[in-house]
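thoughts on both lines:
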Amino acid sequence: MDHEPTVAVAQVFAGLLFLGMVFYMMRRARSNRRSMLEKNAPKIAGEDEMGGGARNPQQFEEPDDDALEMMAELLEENEDSANEP
């Protein structure tokens, strides 16, 4: 029994399958590259949308003790540097 035609058909099938996989991977890589470039493109002023806001804006109405102490220290440093020649 001669297996040459069967081997030839299997080799042609494997070759076509290989070419199909290469074509698919190249298309997929090109698509991934395009989407990555679009996602990481530089933002142009006015075109990018900034969403959201403060989750709890009431927390900024009254400063807590730590914030008041920090502001006092900054004001003291500012006064000290303004008084120096």
Summary: The radius of gyration is 33 Å. The chain has a mean pLDDT of 86. The longest helix spans residues 4-39.
